[in-house]
Amino acid sequence: MRSDGEAGKRGYLKEGFRLFHLKDSKAPELDFHYHEFDKVVLQLGGKVTYSVEGRSYFLKPYDILLVGRSMIHKPTIDPSEPYERMVLWLGGDYLANHSTEDCWLETCFERTEQRHFHLLRPKGEDRLRYRELFERLEAALEDTAFGSGLLAETCLLQLMVALNRDLVPEPVEDDAAYRFDPKMEEVTRFIGAHLGENLSIDRLAGEFYLSRYYLMHRFKEVYGITTHQYIRQKRLLRAAEEIRRGTPVLKAAMEAGFNDYSAFLRAFQAAYGMSPREWK
To answer: HSE on the CB side for 148, CA within 13 Å?
Structure first.
């Protein structure tokens, strides 16, 4: 069981993809969490602030948010208005298996992670174009006639091509659309680049000329979990990804920063509900 304040894993996806069309009259209460799959959110109604890896996005109707697997996130919903959205879940290998050499469909998620900017705010006619792409996919998934499965995949691929075309070029960022703490983002970038090294509070505080107390307090305030919990989860996610790719379990654990193999096994079992070898 995860400790208080630690981001947990939500949702399970066995098929290649799933689409949800959700509308809540009562705002659901969600903690910080992550997925083992990629997620695309089309905002349709309501007042929502979506935190993704420490950046807070103030969503408007027709905004599109891309949340890659392993990214810690949380929506904060204003209960004064119904919250409506369409949410697309994409399995870990689905986009790769449907990509070609000159059309790598995971590029949009890779670019948003590199830029630390996960929002696409379509303008003018593009707003209705994206809604239509989502609604075509929704209709195809509800269809039971001949070729409905192939039609749904075709609709999904059209949507992903559109997202890549709009997100691969450098997007125009609207400063009013999001907020972040530059210093804490520097800390998390440093963590991501040095997972295999010592990442004690003392080292991080020294690297960024911060007091231990300020770093711990501010990090928890921005990310919703402690620095220690964030580092452990990122190490587990890194190790799990390497094991999935075929890296030997012990090597994956060491390269992700786990010096105590038995502690890694316990943490992995608690996080994934299975041993690393079963996961592999």
So the answer is: 9
